[in-house]
Amino acid sequence: MRLRRSVGTDVEKVFAMHRAVIGLNNCIWSDDYPTIENVETDHETGSLRVFEDSDGTIIGSCALETENEFEDFHGWTLDGEHCEEITRVVIASEFQGHGYAKQMVKLFMDELAENGCKAVHLFAVKTNPAACKTYRALGFETVGEYSAYGHDFYAMEYIIKEE
Q: Who has greater pLDDT, 163 or 119?
């Protein structure tokens, strides 16, 4: 398994993966989000990562938030420079339940740490206990709660320890 930056041919595949999980396993995504424009922007800004197996099959993807839509949340322990927010975490439906999300997010966290990141943030929807469990197993702590788009989220943070 490896995590890599997206290439242009990944955009449609990632978007199709987003569409395929709508309504599954407590996923709150809809026909309105995420959009193809979200995926294109993630790719164009260099924030989209693709998780693939040794055969090159795309198993999942995640991205860095380039525009903080929850900018009025102020509960982070560390905020500002050298902090990143992971968003749009998805594992293809046929690969869910095997720990791939944990592997993928861990690889992304490692990459961020290598690039000087001090804290990783994310918002996990409360109605997806599997995702919340995954993030907690990676060491994320809940630092607050936030409501948006008709859903309640946990604001989760991982402080990167300096070695």
A: 119
